[in-house]
Write a structure and sequence with these properties.
globular, alpha+beta, eight-stranded mixed sheet, about 20% helix
């Protein structure tokens, strides 16, 4: 099932209202215009200075901007959560800050410090506080973007780089809790060794929209991509890491430069060790993956979502789903920490507002 596009469910609000005028029960995972965004700019040879919150508006770009001409751009994704007692929490924003820096180094871009990144995310969350859904109704998805905004034609360096962040209230990425039905993509490859698969480059996604569109026409939830070198080993979904469980061993593909180092991924690895599982990061042949007891995917949007089936060359293999799965336990544990329902003994959450 494809993530639902979000219609215009909301209107502007007055300052004395706690929430925006949103039909929270109908909230999908899609763009919703909110009030404010963050913008900072950096000239070549300089460091990023503190940006500012401005009203949400279209960005003005030179037609020769590096992001338009050469695809020099990155994005991140993280969420703000409203707790039952009125607090606002972020989940490991420093990890996203480190990841955008790694991506910027790969794309030859200046980047904000981790402190600047986290500060921007906090400011965006608070500036759009009314759009943070009530507890249990969704989250505020925050999308930081870093891109070459200066004009460039045939040479570099890029004269100007922009760091911005905006936010949208979202529901669950996958509405169907019964599990995903995946198709193995054995023609198109998502990433290549020495390429950009290990960072959140904006160029990683649209090249596989053709097989994604075809898979969704056929009724599949998502694609499972294979490695480019051999075409025999599983890598990840369109925008999620993948795991398998066999006996007491939890395995996920190793980070070799073609797989995104997901923030949820590293949390799940740690939680699985806490639960007493043996954890492996390694090459996983598709044949072995299809013999798993249970499979699931992880990501900021997906959180932890069971995989119900994988279809390869018209052969469909089913996997365990339901409330008694490891995926369900991981989802509940992570969600409880993220939303403040249990004590965060890991130090993963960041509280940004104590006022209700």
């Amino acid at each position: 099932m494809a993530p639902s596009a979000q219609p215009a469910l909301l209107t502007s609000v007055s300052l004395d209202e706690k929430y925006a005028n949103v039909k929270w029960e109908e909230l999908g995972f899609g763009f919703v215009r909110t009030d404010n965004m963050y913008v900072a700019k950096c000239n070549h040879g300089e460091d990023f200075q503190e940006g500012k919150i401005v009203p949400f508006a279209d960005l003005q770009l030179n037609p020769c901007a590096a992001v338009l001409q050469y695809g020099q751009g990155l994005y991140e994704g993280l969420k703000a959560y409203r707790t039952e007692d009125g607090r606002i929490l972020l989940f490991r924003p420093d990890q996203n800050g480190h990841r955008i820096q790694a991506g910027a180094r790969r794309l030859y871009m200046p980047y904000p410090s981790v402190d600047q990144f986290v500060s921007a995310v906090k400011q965006v969350a608070l500036a759009n506080k009314k759009w943070i859904p009530p507890p249990g109704k969704g989250t505020l998805y925050i999308r930081p973007i870093l891109f070459g905004s200066g004009p460039i034609l045939g040479s570099f360096p890029v004269p100007e780089t922009t760091f911005s962040a905006f936010a949208c209230p979202v529901g669950r990425y996958h509405k169907d809790n019964t599990g995903l039905n995946l198709k193995v993509e054995d023609k198109f490859r998502r990433a290549f060794l020495s390429g950009t698969g290990g960072v959140k480059s904006i160029t990683n996604y649209s090249p596989v929209w053709i097989p994604m569109a075809e898979a969704r026409k056929q009724g599949f939830s998502d694609l499972l991509f294979l490695d480019a070198a051999t075409g025999k080993n599983v890598e990840e979904l369109f925008a999620a890491n993948v795991f398998m469980l066999k006996g007491n061993v939890v395995s996920t593909p190793a980070l070799t430069g073609t797989i995104l180092p997901g923030v949820t991924r590293i949390c799940v690895l740690e939680l699985c060790r806490d639960f007493g599982y043996q954890v492996e990061e390694r090459v996983i042949p598709l044949e072995e993956f299809l013999e798993s007891d249970e499979t699931f995917c992880t990501g900021t949007a997906s959180i932890v979502t069971s995989i119900a089936s994988v279809t390869f060359k018209d052969k469909k293999t089913g996997f365990k789903t339901g409330e008694e799965t490891l995926a369900a336990k991981l989802y509940d544990t992570l969600s409880d920490i993220q939303t403040g329902r249990v004590e965060d003994t890991k130090g993963w959450t960041v509280e940004i507002d104590r006022q209700g």
